[in-house]
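Example 3.
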Amino acid sequence: MAIHHILHYPDPRLRFKAAPVARVDDEIRMLIDDMFETMYAAPGIGLAAPQINISKRLIVIDISEKRNEPLALVNPEITLREGSQKSDEGCLSVPGISEGVERAARVVARGLDRDGGALEVEAEGLLAVCLQHEIDHLDGKLFVDYLTEMKRKRIRKKMEKARRQAM
Ligand code: ZN
């Protein structure tokens, strides 16, 4: 297993539309393991493959307190959205930033599990938010896109400054 480097906003690679996974094989399972390791180390509650510069439709999530309820979804899709909720969101690709975002309150997501079997997840609350946030990443969409242009610009400046200071 390996911890991968996480791309930071406004890296243009975060904007690519990721390609579907053709087959869930050992290579994909290894990648899923790496994604969990990277997410737990960060630490975070969700990670999408494009965040580690792998343009594949693959997400991992663990919102449990004990960090022992891993959920991996290959080629995930949201098949139902209901209601709305607003909560503060952050992102491992936008470190140090947390802003309120409105999302569906309940979702049903469908995809494949790490063995290639069909998996359907019904979620509400934090898990619903997390699924919507991570699946957005696969289409090059970030939570900052839901904010006002003014807020987004301010965040972008902050990120660019942090990047310059790190170099
Ligand atoms: Zn994110």
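The longest helix spans residues 149-166. DSSP finds three helices and seven strands in the chain.
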